[in-house]
Amino acid sequence: MNQQTLKQQLTDDMKASMKGGKKKRLGVIRLVLAAIKQIEVDERIELDNARVLAVLDKMVKQRRESISQFKDAGRDDLWEQEEFEVAILQDFLPEALSDTEIDQLIAKAVSDTGASSIKDMGKVMGILKPQMQGRADMGAVSGKIKAQLNA
């Protein structure tokens, strides 16, 4: 059976949202597809699943930053909308890794690369990034790697 690409899945969900009258969901999906299309036009390429995941991940990060800023400013209406958008975006991301799974992957990558100091962090990140793309906050993962290498 031919596995559907993430981009096709987004397009199909957009059509379903149009038919179902889910205007808020439709708006979020259109934003994602527009961001994907913009990159494809700018770089004259067709995005694969990994790049689409990266776009989704970036959009989630942007919204999380906005949520904290809107909460600080007391703008309940705006942060609630951003949280709704994050929930929709996460529907298309793979299931997030647990802290235990992240720690196990880090330990394996450190032992595989023979990393012993902070200078080896690039090697460890190089192994982990493809495995964790869209499934973990790479900033938090980076912090955990630093802590482990400094220990």
What does it look like?
With 151 residues, this protein is mostly helical. It folds into two domains: 85 residues, Hypothetical Protein Yqey, Chain: A, domain1; 52 residues, Orthogonal Bundle (Arc Repressor Mutant, subunit A), CATH 1.10.10. The chain contains seven helices and no strands. It starts with 5 loop residues before the first helix and ends with a helix. It comes from hydrothermal vent metagenome.
The number of helical runs is 7
The CATH homologous superfamily of the largest domain corresponds to: Uncharacterised protein YqeY/AIM41, N-terminal domain
Kindly report the average pLDDT value. Answer: 90
Which overall shape is indicated by the principal axes computed on the Cα atoms? globular
Largest sheet: none
- Second-tier CATH architecture of the largest domain: Orthogonal Bundle
> What is the oligomer described by this structure?
single chain
CATH class division of the largest domain: Mainly Alpha
In short:
This protein is mainly α.
What brief labels describe this structure?
mainly alpha, carbon-nitrogen ligase activity, with glutamine as amido-N-donor, Transamidase GatB domain protein, Hypothetical Protein Yqey, Chain: A, domain1, single chain, 151 residues, 7 helices, Arc Repressor Mutant, subunit A
